[in-house]
Fold:
Amino acid sequence: MSNAFRLPFLALLYKRYLANQDSAAFLRKVSQSYTPGTLERLARHRTVEVRRAAVLALGFVGGFDSNDTMGRALTDSDRTVRILAENGIRSLWNHAGTLEECRALAIVIRLNAAQQYRRAEQKATRLLEKSPWFAEAWNQRAVAHFALGEFDEAIHDCHQALELNPYHFAAAAGIGQAYLHLGNHLAALDGFRRALRLNPNLEGARAQIARLTRLIGDK
Structure:
């Protein structure tokens, strides 16, 4: 038919990627053909394969300006889109600053992963003194505070992360976990509910909501 619905070229690139798993070639072709702004529009396309391709690409080539698009994709009707968005949006969060700031954040993340929490907290504090707008730095300092048993400080930092980045489901879940350790079940429930609204794939938050709902109801 002359007026048949035609898919964007991006759908073909994604099909090739699924066949050969050559992510470098996929990203090269996408970068040559599309701007991040166009990919953001395609992330809302009616065809699921196009949304998958756009969200996958944005996770690699998008900047923090794409955070709203990726955050909305976390609640897409398609599970694959949601998973791609969850993976990709974390990359956006970690690369939201200058090269120097992102390197400093990477050190904090590595220190947390190595369970060197006090050093991570100190490094994050220095980063935040220079870049208080860096949401992921607040979240990473919250991770360190939580591991050190400093739950009030962790809650404060998670709120700061969410103030700067309202899609930060990890910070919302962190609030839930910290309040849980403080024995405030109602506040913990609110935190987990917020996290699940932002990211329906968080099965851990879903389980905590069910458990806390029963626990509060039994009192």
Notes: The mean pLDDT is 94.
